[in-house]
Amino acid sequence: MTTKYPKTIIPLEGWEREEQFRFFQPFTQPFFNVHTEIDISPLYHYCKREGLSVFLAYLFVTRQAACATPNFLLRIEEGQIVQYAGLDLSTTVLKNDQTIAFVHLPHQDSLLDFCNQARDIIAEVQDKKGLFHGYQGNDNLHLTTLPWFTFKGMEHAFSANPADAGIPKFAFGKLVQHEDQITLPLSIAVHHALADGYHIHLLLEHMNAYISAFEFLD
Questions:
Q1: Matching Gene3D superfamilies, A to Z (predicted)?
Q2: Do 185 and 37 meet the contact criterion of CB atoms below 8 Å apart?
Q3: Would you say 168 and 186 are in contact if contact means Cβ atoms under 8 Å apart?
Q4: Quick one: which of 63, 141, 175, 195 could link to 190 by a disulfide (CB 3.0–4.6 Å)?
Q5: Is residue 94 part of a domain?
Q6: pLDDT value at position 161?
Q7: Enclosing domain of residue 69
Q8: Is 196 helix (H, G, I), strand (E, B) or coil?
Q9: Strand-by-strand arrangement of the 80-84 sheet
Q10: Nearest Cα residue to 114 out of 183, 72, 61, 74
Q11: What is the pLDDT of residues 68-87, one digit of tens each?
Q12: Which tens digits make up the pLDDT trace of 16-70?
């Protein structure tokens, strides 16, 4: 498979997760989901001041946090564990005919550049036919947003295929506002052969750090 980002093969034998990998990899459904919420208040208020999309901003932060968490860079390809050097995003988009499409959003180094490019890509897809638009490689994260309601849990559709590459899956719900505090429902699904709950904790810590940094930006 042609991919955008360089990757490194991690030998299974002697790997720190060798036992966990051998145990979980044969499972028919090896993903586990964690449902939580995060406080995105600094990011939300920054976007409102700057006229940026809050939706695109939390996708950008998710990508940054995943790249800072090594287990979210891991994939399973042809029975081998590989670690990518970077990630892009593949997100669901609701088109004008009320059907969804899976749309590739390339990484940009700045939030502003990412929002501008992603906005244009999504606008171009709105009236297009087809389910998939743009690059859909293993070095993506899979994202979906349900902005119409909050949720306490979210289970993704999946194919019962033990050869799944193990791409992490994120789902976001409706923003909840309590005075100046804005929270975002979040579901994270990861392949248990590649990550445990601890690694989701690390990702959430990175997300919180990136979000908090916007509190100090004018």
A1: Chloramphenicol acetyltransferase-like domain
A2: yes
A3: no
A4: 195
A5: yes
A6: 66
A7: 7-216
A8: coil
A9: 7-10, 80-84, 74-77
A10: 61
A11: 999 999 999 998 999 999 99
A12: 999 999 999 999 889 999 999 999 999 999 999 999 999 999 999 999 999 999 9
- Domain assignment present for residue 1? The answer is no
Tokens encoding 117: 């490019």
Q: For residue 190, what is the domain's CATH number?
A: 3.30.559.10
Instruction: Judge whether 136 lies within some domain.
Output: yes
Using DSSP's 3-state secondary structure scheme, residue 35 falls into strand
Q: Which residue has the tokens 């449902």?
A: 35
Is residue 103 in a domain? yes
Residue 82 has phi, psi (to 5 degrees) of: -125, 150
C-alpha angle 123/153/44, rounded to 5°? 45
Structural domain tally of the chain? Answer: 1
Within 25-155, residue ranges assigned H as helices are 41-50, 54-67, 111-125
H or E segment to which residue 133 belongs: strand 132-133
Length of the chain: 218
Beta-bridged to residue 182, according to DSSP, are 177
In contact, 170 and 182? CB cutoff 8 Å: no
Q: Which two tokens stand for residue 169?
A: 């899956």
Q: What is the mean pLDDT of the chain?
A: 93
β-partners of residue 105 are 89
